[in-house]
User: Fold these one by one.
Assistant:
Number 1:
Amino acid sequence: MSEKLQAIRGMRDILPEESVRWQCVERKIIQVLDRYGYQEIRLPILEKTELFARSIGEQTDIVAKEMYSFEDRNGDSLTLRPEGTAGCVRAGLEHGLFYNQTQRLWYMGPMFRHERPQKGRQRQFHQIGVEAFGFDGPDIDAELIILSARLWRELGIKDITLQLNSLGTLQARSKYREILIDYFLKHEEQLDEDSRRRLQTNPLRILDSKNPELQGLINSAPAIKDHLDTESEEHFDQLLHMLNEAGIEYEINPRLVRGLDYYGQTVFEWVTDQLGAQGAICAGGRYNGLIEHFGGKSVPAFGFALGMERLMALIKTNGNDIERQPLHAYLILSAEEEVIAAGLKLAELLRDQLPHLRLTTHCGGGSFKSQFKRADKSGALFGLILGSEEVENQTVGLKSLRDKSEQETIPWGNIGKILAKNIQ
Ligand code: ATP
Ligand code: MG
């Protein structure tokens, strides 16, 4: 017996009922990005494994245990992208996009991480990422945070909070790292296994631990804000001032560190308490060191990525669910070959006249009765009915499917005008 075919664990289909909601949200987001002057960059889903290892960091959870990597037929190690920034930077360097110019870019699409699937956490998920290159001042940090706040506003989302922190420059951060290691070493017996491992590899991530038994220890740990360099301190103060002026509320979270190695200075996350444990909707920050690290000249960079699955779930809990747009008309045809040909032609005439018309032509034959049932089920506002007599007279029957009014006979030349009056 053959095994039942199923999608891979942690990878979901998005069925039509849901995809219309996705399209609507994506359209709104793209519109906002366009209004701020951000342009789309389309990137491959596969990259060389080395790209992620070098940019995200060997010691991060993503690179150490979450990547989908494999050898292709040439023996090259490739990886399904776990995030978009690395590919975006690679493309920018490859095409000289950072040379003497600034860039405001966005991308969207699937990302892959081999994590434990649970509510709000999948192995294939979708992100919209936004990146700005070539700006080192806090103004671009503010612009992107203000832009993200507009997204939530325009999507009708309320239960979302902005958390902010500064990690300092890479130098300040590495000094702080030593201080933190010293502190946790003094209390090593209280650490769990995960944190013990991180102590050697990525001690800042201990601050991000979700283990309730560690919270006391973490709360008393030296805070990064007391070890910031002056440059980062000024940068952060200016950012806070700009956000205050723009009326953006925030919380400073001294334990916000982010999972990727290449962040420094500003980091931020938009979180909600509406979705259980997976509360981070959108996260990002400044990563000035990355491009230089790839062998380019130094180019400051700031960006964020939002998780589409969590965003869609939050929109639902906020009660702003998007209604499916119904069909305007369903064309019902009798079975003669000539009528079918005429029906397809009439449908094209109407689509030429009315670019916003949503019209489905019945295909596959069947009685008028069964076609009416389909038309009704489709949610269409009107049935258009075509038989051989109508074709001969160049008319079409028009029947509202949403009230009991009588069917009318309309000349082909008038049907477009009548439909136009009844659709938005
Ligand atoms: P988390 O702490 O929840 O694991 P992260 O810090 O790993 O998140 P980022 O790499 O910053 O996440 O990705 C940005 C956003 O992408 C997250 O805020 C989240 O909304 C979404 N995201 C990340 N991983 C997943 C996943 N496995 N499934 C669904 N969405 C995800
Ligand atoms: Mg993660």
Number 2:
Amino acid sequence: MKRVYLDNNATTKLDPLVKMKMQPFFEELYGNPNSLHQYGMEVRPYLNEAMGYMYDALNAPDPDDILITSCATESNNTVLKGVYFKHILRDPSKNHIITTAVEHPSVLETLHFLEDNGAEITFVDVDENGYVSAERMAAAITDKTVLISMMWANNETGMIFPVEEVAAIAREKGILFHTDAVQAIGKVPVDLTRTPVDYLTFSAHKFHGPKGIGGLYVRKGCELPNLLHGGEQMGGKRAGTLNVAYIIGMGLAMKQSVGHIEKMNSDVRALRDRLEDALALIPETIIVGDRARRTPNTILISVRGIEGEAMLWDLNRAGIAASTGSACASESLEANPVMSAIGEDPELAHTAIRLSLSRFTTSDEIDYTIDVFTRAVERLRAISSTYAYTNEVG
Ligand code: PLP
């Protein structure tokens, strides 16, 4: 059966070049880089090279730190709990954190936990396009605000948020600024020399690197207490033996994906737009957010009257992988939380389907998806009208 993967905001395929680069570190180059013998020493230049790729990809000023973590969830927890321990616990008069209502659960749930422990949190709502303006974020600032955490791009809608503007406002007011850039790397230019971000989260498996490895950029002067205590790895800032093969994979994957950003914004965007234009012809569909302000690979579409799960099932039977929401929540058949936050129409939350492409998506796959999706809508609408008729006469 044909297989088409359109769930790249959940995770991506490993770039074959990255896989090749990682291979020796499972076999002959398996030393612990903190060991003083040749096995340890011989892997260090490769680690340095990989770290260099990440600094270059983010244009991070050199003395600043990139902390390697196990995933973006850990990076987000490190920032939010770190700010709580370093600032809020010491000075409760500065206990206010601002975020958006549509962050990933690793931000939202951590902030609810901190709220239960005395922090004051403002969850700023998005508008009907899934967008939140810099003015709306700035209006939430009080003299108690210590941190603003705002994702660079939303995982469900692909909407790109005004991170540069909000970071500048935060800097001017002496407020720390964190961005979860998981969905931005390789899609939106990220330049830490230009944007005054203090903390930035990323995750390798969202840009064709391995799963189970991520990072956190920390600007010089904004250091945080450790989340994991123990060994002296990562300059004593995060304990645990370094995952050498995965760090090397993440470095190359980031270099590769940032190197493909133009392709993403031309070829992949063109495929996405062709798919979107075709699906928009289906009667009673809503596509969330202005596509010029979305990441070039994402569509969140709602087809009135058709449950997201029913649609997902039909697509899956034809070999197409899509999603009804964040993979972290998709085991429960709940309403799409971002659609609920957009809040315009409660039905949207149950009918949303996310299609997310990658630089490996082909034109043939898009043609096939247009055909399958259109036929699935016809089939499911026919079933529901037969059901409605039977109910009426029965
Ligand atoms: N932040 C965003 C915006 C995401 O989309 C995801 C994954 O879906 C995460 C954080 C969590 O990433 P990880 O799987 O690396 O913990």
Number 3:
Amino acid sequence: MAWAVIPPEPQPVVAPHLTDYSTIRAGFSWDAARGWLDGLPDGGLNIVHEAVDRHVAQGRGARVALRFLGEGGVDRELTYAELAEQTARFADVLAGLGIGRGDRVFGLMGRLPDLYVAILGTLRRGAVFCPLFSAFGPEPVRQRLQLGHGRVLVTTPSLYRRKVAPIRDEVPDLEAVLLSGGGPGAADVPGGRDLAALLAAASPGGAVAATTAEDPALLHFTSGTTGRPKGAVHVHGAVVAHHMTARYVLDLHDDDVFWCTADPGWVTGTSYGVVAPLTCGVTCVVDEAELDVDRWYRILEEQRVTVWYTAPTALRMLMKAGVERVAGHDLSHVRHIASVGEPLNPEVVVWGQEAFGRPVHDTWWQTETGAIMIANYPGVEIRPGSMGRPVPGIEAALVARDADAKPLRTPDGGPVFVTDPDVEGELSLRAPWPSMMRAYLDEPERYAKAFVGEWYLTGDLARRDADGWFWFVGRGDDVIKSAGHLIGPFEVESALMEHPAVAEAGAIGVPDPMAGEVVKAFVALRPAYQASDELRLELIGFGRKRLGPAVAPRDIAFQQDLPKTRSGKIMRRLLKARELGLPEGDLSTLEGTSEGARQ
Ligand code: WT7
């Protein structure tokens, strides 16, 4: 006899936390939001207390905090109580290695339980965690480990072999390598230790470090137009903004099952894949695998995901696969969908409505801002194509720029704001707020340059309509955005120039229907080398090997006369305009000869 069909339970109606934008915004204060959290007994603040221990103390330790879906089908769960214990063990391991307040622990791993234990265990210890994306090649790994003076690295034997071993001699600060899932390999790795053995031997009961709200907690490297990656330093106090936005923007409620698809190697994956949802006591789904259309729909269905935070590139891929792929899945429990990282096309917002019965809510923020700054909210009208309005506690404005893309200043040094509706300006935010970066690591001047007075300049261009909705226009600089990841052209160019054939290189983003942009590099060859298809493929391979697939150029073109300014800087803007057949704009700084040489 067949089982009777059990009809789906009617979904409880969940009223959004943010019901009336203007009223909540008007009544909001960061002090009040701080009061939604516990704090430490001595007045301090530690992310792990708010994300983990607090729930255990309140009798909710048996709730699943993280549910890991393994690539090979093996799933694991960690309850809040287990997470408290595991992170205490990890903190004790660090103590045993002599790692304490402010020391830097790096992670280079896929989305496996040990990564999450390492992130939170490091914060529990009062040390600083710096995640590296596992699709980085040895070059980005070296740069970041060097700049951040990483003393401990948590990784797997296979990632170590491929990404760290080639550059190990160049990172002398690295003392210990904690290998996840790899006992036997540890002996061959300088400073190598078997993480599982260390955790098993460690003490499970240690308290959270007595950090203050201003103690550094996370270090996230991000890319600029020139020079080395910038290390954005975030503090424990950021948790106030994480928690607030998790409630008001992601609308997390106690019983939610939340899936943030971002990797903790990027800021979204730590802020909203770990910290923010755990402060709300929800269950987080973590999938080890990369995007796969049917797998994703199965996860949404089987895990009974209620709130889903993902990215435009992913949504575009799902959309391309066709709405009929959703049809066989019961996704009625999905209550709220949000997206971040790159422009969200209005078609995708509307497609969400068709495919899931829910529109996609665009949110905007950056590594530097630490938390969502501009957003669309459940229960509030959406204008498809708009990033929405600033979150409570955040004041956003547009700053006018001069012909050199520098912010215009009033005679007393303050910013000149764009006040008319629908006029472009540089999106700027009034500091401070709890999750604002506190520094670019070791680069005070670079940090200072990001501000005009108390206004932080984001580097993005935007417009604001007459009702206060913000609309993204584009990056105000040469940084490339591919599949939601920021890529510094300088990093790409520097790596290519390590190849003996390359005299000069210029990297730009070219439009791609799925990833938004992909990296294309233009290369001028040294005299002894001839352009050939073979060399082109070799350079593409060289780029991938050095930089890893997340950063490397997808395409390379040879061009002997790269356009340069008179001071010798490659004009990526012009390379891009020529590549795309766009107006070439102001050429007054172009080096005299190259204009002629191009003809
Ligand atoms: C840059 C920040 C923090 C999220 C992960 C990326 C672009 C982000 C949007 C959006 C258009 C967006 C901006 C921003 N961006 N969100 N909703 N619409 N563009 O963090 O790597 O620091 O990148 O991503 O250009 O400045 P990130």
